[in-house]
Amino acid sequence: MKQLIYLDNAATTKTRPEVVQAMLPYFTEYYGNPSSVYDFSAPCKKAIADARETIAKSIGAKTNEIYFTVGGTESDNWAIKATADAYKDKGKHIITSKIEHHAVLHTCEYLEKQGYEVTYLDVDEFGVVKLDELKKAIRPDTILISIMFANNEIGTIEPIREIGEIAKEHGILFHTDAVQAYAHVPINVDELHIDMLSASGHKLNGPKGVGFLYIRSGVKIRSFMHGGAQERKRRGGTENVPGIVGLGKAVELAMADMDERAAKETELRDYLIGRVLAEVPYARLNGHPANRLSNNANFAFQFIEGESMLIMLDSDGICGSSGSACTSGSLDPSHVLLAIGLPHEIAHGSLRLTLSEENTKEQIDFVVERIKAIVQRLRNMSPLYEDFMRKSGKR
Amino acid sequence: MYTEKVMDHFEHPRNVGEIENPSGMGTVGNAKCGDIMRIYLDIDENQIIRDVKFKTFGCGAAVATSSMATTMVKGKSVQEAMEVTNKAVMEALDGLPPVKVHCSLLAEEAIHAALWDYAQKNGIEIKGLQKPKTDISEGEEEEEY
Question: From CA B7, how far away is CA B12, in angstroms rounded?
Fold first, then answer.
């Protein structure tokens, strides 16, 4: 196998071996249905209760406020659609931002077709939601504010506490998509006035296919999956016991070494950013320079296109991602990069590298050298670069 | 995601570069969509394409189709070059993913734009050639950041 330098931890992470070990008995030994009455199922019930407790504690919530789902997308859909339904007598106006994940944006667009009104807040050049715009957008019929905790592309951490305070002041529910932030930055739902929070297991070295939605007690919310009595009748379907156990274990481990991990990632991230900006001309950093996720670096390289860069990095075993149209599956580049004000052709040249604690300085050095060579190679075949050099009299 | 031929032409693109004082040059595409192709042609007095070079800003498929298209017109007459269609370029690459088919259209347009430029300069008519709609060689404003 060729070497692998995995720098796409915002896409998904490696499941920790301890997590896999914790899950295994729940496939072949404790495979009972947690809803069954016999003793054989008791360990399954207990395992779910334990995971729920670990997760509740991690965000300062109560156990009966944690609902297991299949992941971030389901949690976002549930939070937004069910709130919209439950509070439609109060109003049909929702506030979100232009840089949300598609799980939120497309859900809001769906609701617009159902007669709801949605305000999509602008962000500043660093991707920070504008609080004065939020205040202005609030109306008597606003029922929900949904703003992500940290952006998945550019890593910018949003002013969640301030947004929570504004929501509380106006008696509006506040949901946050914390898929990228949970177990990476400290979160306390009471201190931050969060009413609902979405999270996903595979972004924190847990398994894929499991996540949760935190719903504050007292929030009126409809069932999303109608079925059995699981999850206090709010989310039917036999529990994914191994997945939930794995999620619990991953959270336990991630919470235990969060500070240490963040410090290590930050150091490596800043080294990567520093070298790229110093050594690659016509490059910029996207997202907030300081207030960003500890593992996120997002660059834009002028005159070249992202997918080409990714394919060339891949041939060196380097995994990254881009917000170019070719990688987004449409003709437009990433909505996040456009929202922070990048012109289209620069947004097409974006490269997102998201680190983990397993990455080393040697890997980063190799990656920087490859980026330098690849960017130069693609520029040499770029008509945009040719024109730029000609106009600036450099040839 | 790409065929071996596409990867080969992406990793080892043929005819990348520029031609000084070309007989014809055409640039097509749109930076907004993330694809721009420029073709340079060197055409001799017998209307044979002596040399061809390209520059492309775009994805893997855009680079590969540019490269393949240049190999298919090199040494051909301008009339033969007219008959190199996007379909032929795509077939020569053993196919493209459906979302990338527009890249092959761009290669055909870029060659037509360069041929048009040549025809205009020399006051000749090439059968079947029309003024390219997407030629952006002139008047393109640059966005700064």
Answer: 8
Is residue A241 within 8 Å of residue A68, measured between CB atoms? no
Q: H/E element holding B24?
A: strand B24-30
Residue with tokens 């602008």: A122
Q: How many CB atoms lie within 10 A of CB A58?
A: 21
Q: Does B32 lie at the interface with A, CB-CB under 8 angstroms?
A: yes
Plot region of A214 (φ>0 → left; ψ -120 to 50 → alpha; else → beta): beta
CB A141 within 8 A of CB A34: no
Please say whether the beta carbons of A107 and A75 come within 8 A: no
Cβ–Cβ < 8 Å for B23, B45:
no
Q: Confirm if A51 and A247 have CB atoms less than 8 A apart.
A: yes
Instruction: Answer whether A323 touches B (CB < 8 Å).
Output: no
**A-interface mutation test, from B33, B100, B142, most A Cβ less than 10 A away:** B33
Nearest residue to A71 via CA among A178, A147, A143, A165: A178
Are the beta carbons of A222 and A85 closer than 8 angstroms?
Answer: yes
* Shortest CA distance from B53: residue in chain A: A381
3-state secondary structure B78-125: HHHHHCCCHHHHHHHCCCCCHHHHHHHHHHHHHHHHHHHHHHHHHCCC
Provide the 3-class DSSP secondary structure of residue A361.
Answer: helix
Distance between CA atoms of residues A161 and A147, nearest Å? 11
User: What average pLDDT score do residues A42-63 get?
Assistant: 98
* pLDDT tens profile A310-359: 999 999 999 999 987 665 556 678 999 999 999 988 999 999 999 999 99
Say how many residues make up chain B.
Answer: 145
- Residue A224 has a pLDDT of 87
Q: Which residue of B has its CA nearest to A345?
A: B31
Strands A142-146 vs A173-177: parallel, antiparallel or unpaired: parallel
- Residue A395 is predicted with a pLDDT of 62
pLDDT digits (tens, 9 = 90+) for A289-307: 999 999 999 999 999 999 9
| Separation CA B135–CA B24 (nearest Å) | 12
Strand partners, B48: B77
CA–CA gap between residue B101 and residue B39 (Å, rounded): 19
Complex-level ipTM beyond the 0.90 threshold: no
A345 to chain B, closest Cα gap in Å:
5
